Amino acid sequence: MTFKLKVPDIACQGCADGITEFLLTLEPDAKVQIDLSTKMVTIETSASLENIQQAIIEAGYTIE
Ligand SMILES: [Cu+2]
Description:
Elements: E1 2-6, H1 13-26, E2 31-35, E3 40-44, H2 49-58
Antiparallel strand pairs: 1-3, 2-3
Bound molecules: copper (II) ion.
Copper (II) ion binds at residues 11-12, 14-15.
């Protein structure tokens, strides 16, 4: 599944890298793309949307 989530707290590349790294730690096969201008996280994953949302929150960010 591919999910798109808006994470308004993403301010810079460092945030994007941190989230990407965190998601990849949980699921190394996931494909994560983060658009800094729109703050959209696109993730191709076998995990559930709920798990992805939880992971982003655990990484210290909020989802809009
Ligand atoms: Cu940042």
